[in-house]
Structures are given as structure tokens and as C-alpha cells.
Amino acid sequence: MLQARNIMTTEVITTTPETAVTEVAALLDKHRISGMPVVDKEDWVVGVITQSDLVARARDLELPPTVALFDLRLFLETPAHFKKRLEKMLGTSVADVMTADPITVYPETPVNQIADLMAKKKVHTIPVVEGGKLVGVIGKIDLIRAQAKEPGK
How many CA atoms lie within 13 A of 23 on its CB side? Predict the structure, then answer.
């Protein structure tokens, strides 16, 4: 059975929380990748930033949905959630826009479990860590390449 170590990309392009969003956008475009791990100075994975994060940042601000009951307006979104969306849209650094505490896997994680995670959690970039340190990354294309190499399929 294939494991993360068999399909992961080991030459990982990373960024730091302090990096400017514009710089990350240029890196994603230059390397034609959909996302990258965000690491601290010790190579600990602290987040992931993806094309989806940058697209969400570029959207128009949507006010929280409301329900009007006589003269009372009830907001159907918590203020904390709205604040988080607003901060992400106005953010200029990776720390402002990234997904913190990302889903990670180990080198021994079976590929079918990684596919399940991607589908169920709707994530497309998963860092591979060993001893807490980044050792690789798996994107959707890595899963597709693995399927293309499967014998008899």
C-alpha cells in the first residue's frame, strides 16, 4: 500500500508568517503550485496558504445574513466569525490570510487516508511532518500521479 512518503514532494517551497501576501501570490504563480506550508524559524508547520485563501481575500465583503423580526435585526453569523473573515480580507501578511493549525500527515500515512482527508476536509495541500518538522507536502496532483502509476488501472 502506498504511503505519504511514496508520493510526497520533498523539495518543498515554503513561506513564513511574516511574508507579504503579494510575494506569496507571485511564488504560487511562478512555481505553478496551489498552496504551500507556512513554517516558523525552526521549520515547524504553523499554517498553510493556498490559492483559495488568496481568492477569498479578493472577494467583495459580504455582510452577515440577518433576519428581521419587527424592529429587531438578528445576525445569523457570530461577530467573531465575521471579524475573522474581515481580517483575512484586509490582511497583508501570510499570518493574516493563512489557515493556521493545518491538517498534517506522517510519512507512514496511507494514501487512501490522505485522499479521504482531502475530500472530507476540502483541503488540497497537506504538509507531511516527522517529529513535528516539515519533510514534504502532498497536493492533489500528487494523488493523481499516484493513481496514474497504479498497475492495472
Answer: 12
Tell me the β-bridge partners of 45. Answer: 39
Give me the helices (H) in the chain, please.
Answer: 4-7, 21-31, 51-58, 79-90, 94-97, 111-121, 140-149
Q: Which domains does the chain have, with CATH numbers?
A: 4-58+93-149 (3.10.580.10)
Per-residue pLDDT of the chain (153 residues; tens, 9 = 90+): 889 999 999 999 999 999 999 999 999 999 999 899 999 998 899 999 998 888 877 655 566 676 777 777 766 667 776 667 666 766 788 998 899 989 999 999 999 999 999 999 999 899 999 988 999 999 998 998 888 877 655
> What is the C-alpha to C-alpha distance for residues 34 and 139, in angstroms, rounded to an integer?
8
Bridge partners, residue 73, by sequence = 68
* CA separation for the pair 122, 126 (Å, rounded): 11
Residue pair 101/132 in contact (Cβ under 8 Å)? The answer is no
55 and 62 Cβ atoms separated by less than 8 Å:
no
Give the distance from CA 126 to its chain's centroid.
7
The grid cell for 29 is: 504563480
Kindly report the pTM of this predicted structure: 0.75
